[in-house]
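Possible regression after last week's pipeline update?

I re-ran a chain I had predicted before the update to compare outputs. Posting the input and the new output here so someone can diff against the archived version. Not blocking, just want to make sure nothing changed silently.
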Amino acid sequence: MDSLVLWFCSFISCVIIVTILFQFFDDRYLKVFHSKVLYIILPLITIFVVASVNMFINPFLNFIVNLLWVGAVSFFFYYEDTGKKLIRIFEAEALFVVLAMLEALGVFLIDVVMEIMQIMPDSAELQKSIETAFSKIVLLFLYYGFFSRLWRKNILRTKTQYILYLLMFLYGTVNILIINAMFDKSSPLALVLIIGCTIFVNMYLSYFIQSSDERNYYRLQVEMMQQQEKLQYENYELQNEKYQQAVAILHDVEKHIKMIEDLCQEDLKKDAVNYAGQIREMLQPLVPSRYTGNAVLNCLLSDKKRIADKNGIVLKIEAYEADIGFMRPIDITTLFGNLLDNAIAASKCCKDRKYIGLYMKEYHEMVSIRVENSVPEPVSIKNGKIDSANKNRKGIGLLNIQRCIEAYIGSILYRYADDMLVCDIILNRVEE
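New output (post-update):
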């Protein structure tokens, strides 16, 4: 019966390793064949091959066969756009070696703990079973909690999720130790069930948390796109309002011209000048100021300048003819719209000084952007980033800013000094 327990634990070990390997393949590479059935059968065949080799209880043979099999699967059944087959095989083999090392670490740790607590099993098979179970718990904890983040970009993980991973690991550890200390050696079948349930519950919960990470990531992407669309819509509404005003003025332009002519004919030049000045004031909001050589940015800056003036905010703009023609119009609206909206929202809350400065300079193939604004209270900055756990719309705006900067291989750095929040951005020219 002890041999049955050992075989079952070995089978579970194979299932865990194969599951992690194929998740890695699916996350990182593309599938050569389009058959869904094939990629369902392939992990099952792999489990059978690995489990069969394990039956020989030869660590060296087990390691070599697994290494060759993993390399063959990654070579024949997966590919990547770069076409670097040797690198792909090396990555797969390296992952398997890392998993083997993590298993060995788990075995070492549980042996040390059982030795300290003086609860070493009497049976070598039972000891091997306990080692196998604990090593898989360590493996699941480290892989899903930390290693998978190295290649999974669609992960948005919170502190709570890290705590959940830790609690799962501690629960599995305590469960294994209790099983070893209190288990009735005459009921090995119960040990099989308890160990199997413990490991598979940990694997299921780890996969569930990873799925939650993916949902958080895609939810954030949707919110970022919605925020971006909101900026575009607001900009459209402003331009549409200007258009309607322009149409209204043009509708009466003949009447205005006739009135000025009549005033001039009656030698009322002063009244004619005043009348023309009134028309100029009506037209002024419709004509964007030329801050830069980019029409989209000029329209946006003109709108933000009017909003700032209404709120008693001094908005200073120095562009130095910086060329941002390499940026997409939607990125210009998203980047500068979010930067200035955040600055206006903060400055508006200040009691005394209400100031915003936008400075742009061009350095060869780079464009430097600085936005500085007064803030009503100190802002916590950590490693050049705004320290905030608040996941509201403002946070989404900051993420959209970051996304735009990354699209142009740039960098962003925040700092706070003298009641001012300063944001420095560097953008590189990216040719399509």
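Follow-up from reviewer: compared with the archived run. Residues 368 and 426 are 5 Å apart (CA to CA). Marking as no regression found.
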